[in-house]
Amino acid sequence: MSPQENPPVTPDTAGGQPPTRRAAQEAAREEERRLEAAAETGGGQVPPPAVPASPAALTAAGPGDEQPLMQRIMTGNALVAVLAVVLSLILGGLLIAVTDEDVARSASYFFSRPMDTIGAAWSAASGAYAALFQGSVFNAGGDSFARMIYPLTQTLTVATPLICAGLGVALAFRAGLFNIGAQGQILIGATLAGWVGFTANLPFGLHLLLVILAGMLGGAIWGGLVGVLKARTGAHEVILTIMLNYIAINLVLYLLSTPGFQRPGSTNPISPQLEATALYPPLLGSGFRLHWGFIVAVLATVFVWWLLNRSTVGFELRAVGANATAARTAGVSVSRGYILAMAIAGALAGLAGVAQVAGTEKVLTSGVAASFGFDAITVALLGRSSPWGTFAAGLLFGAFRAGGVTMQASTGTSIDIVLVVQSLIVLFIAAPPLVRSLFRLPTPGAIPSAGARRNRKTAATGGAA
Amino acid sequence: MSTVTTAAPDRSAAPAGAVRSWKTPILLAVLALVALLVFGAGAPRNNVTFRLSDPNDAIVLPDLVLPAVATGWLTAVVLAALAVLAVLAVRRGAAVPVWLVAVFAVLFLIGFLTWVVGSANNPNVALYGLLAGSVTLAVPLIFGSLSGVLSERSGVVNIAIEGQLLFGAFAAAVAASVSGSAIVGLFAAALAGVIVSFLLAVFSIRYIVNQVIVGVVLNVLVSGLTGFLFSSVLSKDAEMWNSPPRLPVLSIPVLSEIPILGPILFEQTIVGYLMYIAVAVVYVALFRSRWGLRTRAVGEHPKAADTLGVNVNRMRFMNVLLAGVVAGVGGSFFTLVSVSGFGRDMTAGQGYIALAALIFGRWNPIGAFFAALLFGFATNLSNVLSLLGTPVPDQFLRMLPYVVTVFAVAGLVGRSRAPGASGIPYVKG
């Protein structure tokens, strides 16, 4: 038991009233579960409750309304999130240390000089993480301010497609659809956008606008197709999206093997560079790769927030996601909901494709989507399917990805460690009770429960004595 | 009280209110039209040879030689007749009979094969190799979807099949390399599957985290972990860590000499035989044993099962672990049978395909088995055809399995019903 727990209920003596105790225990457990559920719902297919479950609201909902500040911090969700990140980094660091060659060498004489091993382990893990930070946020060794903040702009560049595609996955989640198909939607969006980008000859502004629209259209068609098939035939969207991912990549490979998509005089599967008028202008000058696509991603986040929380369509989508039967009874067209949700989700993923083809890569290849479509699922899950949560998760994952490249180059630590840390973060954040029990934090609203548990213990031992 | 109610989307979809479903007849009519135009009118003017047995076999069957034009027209006309029958059936208000769809599918396949092989540069294909290769390709898929059946029938959605397969493949490679024995690798693969399953069970049952989230995240975790270990350990000393011996092919004497079916059923590795055994055992156990009844009860209506004294969460926990054993063994196929050695992300989405096969097979072991076989067949067909040099671009051939699945799911299977409580954690009270 942590010292922060100051049970207001005085410990019972052995001869207390068991029924009352049990009732209190039950009530506390019930409350705990309710809160867990409230905290969970955003992460999956069920939208969060109507009342936003801010950490303050969560703790305030507990029986003891007047909680000290410390108590509120200790039980808040923000702390759990921070601890989840810390815990994941520690586990990742352990993995780096265990597989490090210096550590292995010094471990062979561990019992004669144990500090060598520990020192080597520390330098392996801390070196990798320092490089990760240097590659994603701030490079203190840079010779100018621009060089110093360059990593941060890289993070934002990588985060742009993650945010856009993550928003698509999150939106579909809220409508009760599990959209694994962001990868295919990005690819088709990027293909259409790229095609408009390198074939059309239009003035600046109009051309870019058309490129963006084409990308959104491509994604919307690929996503909407899933919605239509699901609504009309009842086919499972998980199968459809997986299959359409494969169909999309093969379609793009085929298109890139035709002369219309290749550079003149070349048979390589790579498109001509997009016209300069079709590209996102750089956001911070030509020294940085960051482009206006990031601003579009911010706008998309605002749009999705507005759509979900302020518009009728968004309300209907959430209703379909929460309980399709109830939604139908209330007069909401479930079919329309599915189609709309998947089409908008696809359009958002298409934006990610535009960010890649008209911003970062500037050409169309079959690898233009990298693995953004799959990472987007984790981003949406970490963001608990809320627009701004997805935005923040996209930034975090963007930082990991941008920093991971630097880390691999400078310390030789494989970038795959980033995947491990990312997935651990999502796992731990999704299971607050695990993090709380690992760090011995009090459960929100569990003060009487803690007291009751202690009572039971004393009762048990007291009874035996 | 409100628990995490993750309603499976398909359960909440529109009830089958329409008396007459025109979906199947329309699909059949469209396909029949395609057959008339392509297989009939567009038939190549030559003979197509299907080789039924290897010339070195004990029993050699004569080659099957079909004239492409006649076969094309014949199948197309019969397909059209079947489509008309389907339309008539629906007009009467009856459903399209299953046999009709099955016959249609087989005939369409024959028509397609004749047309596509006939159009190839070399109109000659080894049918026995095509079929045997399909089964081989389907082995990991079948294990994966059986894992899904075990887990989802008890009410836990198993998206982590991909992770179980990949970790099984990894563990099999490492354990077999270090010990020098493929059998040790097989056991290590099962254990690895159980580890992934254990995490899935702990997070989804004990901590009531959304099961889809846990599954997806576990896949990423395993991909990252195996990728990291691959580049930091395995690839630095492949001799030591990543050179597993292969499982030998055990052919049963006499029986393996049976033409066509012999190699498929009686000339397999241990993993291949285990696959047939697993399908049969899971099917019988699920529908004929007390354990199976309890599993299904827990997956359909956990409260009722609990009322009758079944420990719901323990049942689910054990089933998820068992699912891990099955998928882990399936994963060993990649490193002990298919190729000798682990490669980064070598399962390449097969776990998701297995998930699709599971849904396509309607959460039934036999259904999943055939769905996975269909997938394996389509994949192998595209491999074989790209070798023959057909006029169809390679990329479209590689799309074939996925397109077939979309058509099958959207046109023929349609609304599939998951186990009632699949995805919904059970909290007593």
UniProtKB/TrEMBL annotation, chain B:
GO terms for cellular component: plasma membrane. Keywords: Cell membrane, Membrane, Transmembrane, Transmembrane helix. It comes from Arthrobacter crusticola. The keyword Transmembrane helix applies. The keyword Lipid metabolism does not apply. Its main location: membrane. The chain crosses the membrane at residues 26-44, 64-90, 97-119, 125-143, 155-176, 182-205, 212-235, 273-291, 317-339, 396-414. Pfam families: BPD_transp_2 (PF02653). GO terms for molecular function: transmembrane transporter activity. It is found in: Cell membrane. It is a multi-pass membrane protein. This is ABC transporter permease.
